[in-house]
Amino acid sequence: MSAPLTPDEDTSLDMARSFPAPAYTLPDLTTSLPSGPFEASPQGAAEAARITAGPPAGLFRRLIADQESEAVLLSARRVLAAFLTPADEEDEYRTDGPGPDADADAVAAHVLAVRAELAAVLGPLRTHPDPEVRTAVLRQRAPLALTGGCWLDTLSQAATQPAEIVGRLFGQHWLLQGEGTSEAGLLGRRRRALIGHGIHLPGVESAAFLDAAGARPLTALHGAFHLALSRLPASFLPEVVGVHYAAHALGLDELLLGTEPMLAESDVRPVLAAYLAFTEDSPTGPADRRRALAAVRLLLRLEREHTAALAELAAWHDGLSLDAKVARIVERHAPHAGRQHGAVRLGTRRLTDWLDTGDLDAAAFVRELRGSRQLKPARDGGPCRFLKAVKFGGPMFGIFDETEAAVLTAWARAVADGEPAGAGLTPLTAGDATARVWSGRLAAADPADVLVGEPEGPEDHRRFFHRLVNFEHHPSVLPLARARAEAGLAEAEILFEHGAEGLLTDASWFPYTPEALLERVERIYWDKLVDPYEPLTEIPSRDEVVFEQSTYALGSLIDGTWAHRVGNLGRRGRRSDDMLFAIYADEMGRGDTAKNHITLIHKVLASMDMDLPHIRQEAFLHQGELPDHLYGFSVHQLCLSLFPDSLYNEILGYNLGIEMFGLGALRMHEIQKLRRYGLDASYEEAHLSIDNFSAGHARQSADIVVAYLDEVRHLSGEEAVQREWRRIWRGYASFAFFIEHALVKRVRAAASEDAGAPAELVI
Fold it and tell me: What count of other Cβ atoms lies within 10 Å of the Cβ of residue 533?
């Protein structure tokens, strides 16, 4: 969706730059985005180094919890450098992997052979007779099962659309996300399968998730690779293609869980084949093909490593004696034992002294407990003191879960029956040797393409726009983008008082109720968008029509961007997230590039002989077709999009404004003018249809706000609803601010006159 110029934006074509710029043409067969350095501030680079130097679990948690900071993007770059950079030539050209010239069928033959190899290991683990072993294996796999596919979460963005390969991947992403209902998607299915196996874990975004899964360092490191790729998917498009193919072709999680895949190997092979075909005509094709197939080999290596770790974990559990299992239970609970056991003695020491030293010898503790009076059978033949203490009414009731209580009971009975002590507890080291290799590579990772320096300011709108579109390569732009977004939102609140005078919007303030919101949007729809419509009796000249379209074009070229990062991994828990993702999916054609709104606007521009480079390209800085001072609206939208967590409310309000703008007189007049000169009107026609207020995006956008605030009311009460609502409405006002430029000019002029100063028109 596009918008007219703001009061700050000159409409003179003389302001356009006119340096030569190669035209971008459809179809977009891009196989990788333009390469270049990753810009980092000194502070961001230093924090990224600290994050990656920490424990693997801490790295995993930071990567999933934070999608808005420069440091995390730079941390992701370091993780990818560690995993993707071959340690030596042999590492890159493994003889057991597809070579750089392999076609999709040859790759598939190899990957399916590896799948058979790994299935032979995983099958016995899935059907293991000991439920504790099965549970331990599935828990250990859960961090990878529940981050699988995250590399597609934000692949679709302004820099990558409408590339054919991105469209195909987005179509599969739409399927994997349950086609707008996340619980029906891949991760929802996997979570339900885990529950079916008796495994209840907190959300992956929870600080307790890795602990609840018992995640080993190798698991956390592999998960960090998934997450790092999800943070920089545009910059690593070939790797996304390779990892996506290999992960779904192997399908190890479905093998372990005993479920049917949502995407089988036969579903993902055509995507890989298409990509490899695209590389044949791409200027970077040989390198991109090499990168994609190297990513396939890497994923095979990682899955072999994790399968081996799971087998090692199962073998360790298999080898545990009852005494060793009791020692594990003691180790697990000792840190929380407290000092309330002072009167209890075990051997020659108080129980408190055993448990409160910080260096508990669990094996010695169990040996001592074996011969203690607490384990001696009661004279009446009942349970020993220890088991009485664990049961209801005893001082340790509720400390141990059902599985632990069953182990303790079996052990106490074995001791009473005179069974000798079993083997002692050996440390669990599953996957640790391999984890040390990856940790060493991560510690040594210092990607040469990260350039550290003070960030460039936002004064040049073109350069600022370019950096925002290519934010993955410009992490240092994030603090500037945040400041710009906040400034625009604050300034837009001027319309809380004066917004009723708007021609196409009404951003005047009102207290929220669902009924009040629907009444407001209904009134805007009829009074400002639909009822004023009358067909034009006089059509401007073709040059005027083309120029007017050029003032809308920049906003259209980033259509949907405001929502592209909302609701990715760990954030798709609200109904409003699914609803907004569904709108974004519609904007992107749900994977059909012919229906993609970015494709449509490029067709419109081509019909006007407006040959522009793609906005991701450096050449776009020098294009001469679009006026130079029309960037404010698009810059604001891009800035909002980069903060989908902390500016979530504002994005919902902005979405409401922009989706309603697709309706009514303005849109219909544009269609009339375009048709008059035989110009492509498909972009305008698509929005007039899909944004309808009956059931389309305009109505859905209001329903999204209601759904979100219903949840806020349920969790936090009415006062919180009004607080959250104010932020949503300033998001709407920030859209109206760019539409109602005549109104804003009047209000500013009046305010300046009252203050005795000239009107300031620069945002």
Answer: 13
Which segment of 218-232, 282-296, 364-378, 522-536 scores lowest on mean pLDDT? 364-378
Longest Cα–Cα distance in the chain: 107
Q: Which two tokens stand for residue 302?
A: 């990682």
Give the rounded distance of the alpha carbon of 350 from its chain centre. Answer: 51
Bridge partners of residue 730, in order along the sequence: none
Return all residues near 181 (Cβ < 8 A) that are at least 6 apart.
578
Q: Count CA atoms closer than 13 A to 365's CA, side-chain side.
A: 24
**Token pair belonging to 123:** 């099958």
Q: Quick check: bond before 27 cis, omega within 30? A: yes
d(CA 431, CA 429): 6
DSSP state of 725: H
**β-strand pairing of 450-452 with 349-350:** unpaired
| Percent of the chain as helix, strand, coil, to the nearest 5 | 60, 0, 35
Tell me which of 202 and 393 has the higher pLDDT. 202
Query: How would you label 376-407 residue by residue, b for 16+ Cβ within 10 Å and e otherwise?
Result: ebeeeeebbbbbbbbeeeeebeeebeeebbeb
Would you state the structure tokens that stand for residue 719, as one six-digit string? 């006062």
Q: What gap in Å lies between CA 707 and CA 374, rounded to an integer?
A: 57
Helices marked H in 251-321: 252-257, 265-279, 285-318
CA separation for the pair 98, 91 (Å, rounded): 13
Is there a contact between 243 and 149 (Cβ–Cβ < 8 Å)? Answer: no
Which segments of 161-286 are extended strands (E)?
A: none
- 360 versus 652: the higher-pLDDT residue is 652
Q: Which residue has the tokens 């016995």?
A: 124
Burial class (CB in 10 A: 0-12, 13-18, 19+), 108: buried
Average pLDDT over residues 596-625: 93
pLDDT at 87: 66
CA 436-442-447 angle, 5° bins: 160
The HSE-up count of residue 242 (CA atoms within 13 Å, CB side) is 28
**CA count, 13 A, side-chain hemisphere, 51:** 28
Q: Is the model's pLDDT at 189 over the cut of 70?
A: yes
Exposed / middle / buried, residue 609 (Cβ in 10 Å: 0-12, 13-18, 19+)? exposed
Cβ neighbors of 436 (< 8 A, separation 6 or more) are: none
Give me 424's structure tokens: 């002692």
The token pair that represents 197 in the structure block: 């196996």
Token duo for residue 680? 């492509």
Q: What is the pLDDT of residue 338?
A: 59
The whole-angstrom separation of Cα 376 and Cα 396 is 18
Cut 0.85: pTM above it: yes
Q: What is the pLDDT of residue 15?
A: 40
Burial of 624 (0-12, 13-18, 19+ CB in 10 A): middle
